[in-house]
Design goal:
about 450 residues, disordered N terminus, five-stranded antiparallel sheet, 5 helices
Length: about 450
């Protein structure tokens, strides 16, 4: 009982700290488009609340966002099972709307705790709301296993083992486009060979399956291809922790084909390649002020009101001035990098500048919505391992104000919403004797989510 109370108090304190904090910046509107920070959880703004959290760890390398939930993958987290301590992979979850921490998801494979070294080095979502994970693999491992995660139970299901063919190199971070279950669409999975030193390797790996079909090598049956064209032309390979990001096709037929994709590498800016391995676009003609600073890897495209945008890392923890920031730019005519227009740099005052043991990956995820007046809006997650994360809203009418819950929150019926109502919900949960007033978020249950909802109401009052 005491442990349960302590857990609730801990979660309650975390929710209070996270929900109340933003980056404190006002960003100018550009072309009638605004951006606001909904919340931030990082070294710069949150101090020990962040650094004492389980996601502030060099094994918590990647994150994604889907249907209003943020998933942070941490490998080798100490977990007590009986009288033993094991190093299990855990997915930590956060509410994308307010940053409150949700129940973590311990991962299992074949009913047993998943304990592989760097077992969830990469996490992401496909195009149909399936969460997937994959481990880091070394240059002596033939296959890259890709797993789908049951977000209710944490059980993992093997989707495919990516064959490296005759090119056994290290792999770190993957991208998936389409439907990994193959029920609703085709699927393509890609990754890049990495190296701990220059010049690196020119190899990319790809698996493909048609809707309802079988997996095969994604380059006309071959599982890998060596790139021969680079930017700059002096490059001959990809070195530290390269990131690949497929671009959604312009029509239904090509939407999930992954014909074009970015590769972002240690010693350059994002470069667009096509399926043949040819360079399609680069930062060669881009304003030099838009070049990223110090060796970060990570990018994503999104669309808003018919405009195409690119988000990419401006600097990692070693950047001049502030670190772990991203540029948001509108692409030029024909979606060109050379004609980009910069809108904002986020956060304006950084997520942090602490060395993360050399990790270069910076994760982004987007979700689309419509505001109350019918205008499109985008929710953007930025996540840098060991330094922090934040969520931004982008659109014509975005505001930093959190949406009000549909229930008043006066759990104890005294006419006010305050800490007494938080305690009332906790008492209901611990005693198992719940009443309708405890279901503050109106989801049919009385649980920690209702505690967080009451806390939100208090903070907004």
């Amino acid at each position: 009982m005491k442990k349960s109370v302590l857990l609730f108090i801990t979660l309650m304190a975390a929710a209070l700290n996270v929900a109340a904090i933003t980056d404190g910046q006002t960003y100018p509107a550009v072309n009638d488009i605004k951006i606001v920070n909904q919340w931030i959880f990082d070294r710069v703004h949150c101090g020990t609340d962040y650094t004492s959290n389980d996601i502030c760890n060099q094994r918590a390398r990647t994150a994604t966002m889907d249907q209003g939930i943020i998933y942070v993958a941490r490998s080798e987290e100490p977990v007590i099972v009986g009288s033993d301590t094991i190093a299990q992979s855990i997915i930590h979850r956060f509410n994308a709307a307010d940053g409150s921490e949700l129940e973590p998801l311990p991962l299992t494979l074949d009913g047993e705790p998943y304990v592989r070294f760097l077992g969830v080095a990469s996490i992401g979502k496909d195009s149909f709301h399936h969460i997937w994970v994959a481990p880091m693999t070394s240059n002596v491992q033939q296959y890259v296993p890709v797993y789908m995660v049951d977000t209710e139970t944490g059980e993992m299901t093997l989707i495919v083992e990516m064959d490296k063919g005759d090119a056994l190199q290290r792999t770190d971070y993957l991208d998936v486009m389409g439907d990994i279950t193959l029920e609703q669409a085709e699927c393509n999975i890609m990754t890049v060979a990495g190296s701990t030193a220059d010049p690196g390797f020119p190899t990319i790996y790809r698996m493909h399956a048609d809707q309802g079909g079988e997996w095969e090598g994604g380059f006309e049956g071959d599982p890998y291809m060596d790139i021969i064209n680079f930017y700059p032309e002096t490059k001959t390979g990809f070195s530290l922790a390269p990131v690949i990001k497929m671009i959604e096709g312009p029509d239904e037929e090509s939407r999930y084909s992954g014909e074009f994709f970015y590769i972002d590498c240690f010693d350059t800016a994002p470069v667009v390649y096509d399926y043949s391995g040819s360079v399609i676009d680069s930062f060669e003609d881009t304003d030099p002020e838009l070049w990223p600073q110090a060796t970060p890897n990570g990018c994503i495209e999104f669309k808003l009101e018919g405009r195409d945008f690119l988000v990419y890392v401006n600097a990692d923890m070693n950047g001049n001035g502030h670190g772990c920031q991203a540029n948001i730019c509108e692409l030029g005519e024909g979606q060109s990098l050379g004609g980009m227009t910069k809108y904002w740099k986020i956060p304006a005052d950084s997520l942090g500048k602490v060395n993360d043991s050399g990790l270069r990956v910076h994760c982004f995820a987007v979700e689309y919505g419509v505001d109350s007046e019918g205008y499109e809006e985008v929710t953007l997650l930025t996540f840098k391992a060991y330094n922090g994360m934040a969520v931004y809203k982008i659109g014509r009418n975005v505001s930093s104000e959190q949406p009000q819950p549909g229930v008043v929150g006066d759990v104890n019926g005294d006419g006010e919403v305050n800490i007494a109502d938080v305690n009332a919900v906790i008492d209901m949960i611990l005693s198992g004797k719940t009443v309708d007033s405890g279901d503050v978020n109106d989801d049919g249950e009385v649980n920690i989510a209702d505690v967080n909802t009451v806390i939100d109401l208090i903070l907004q009052s």
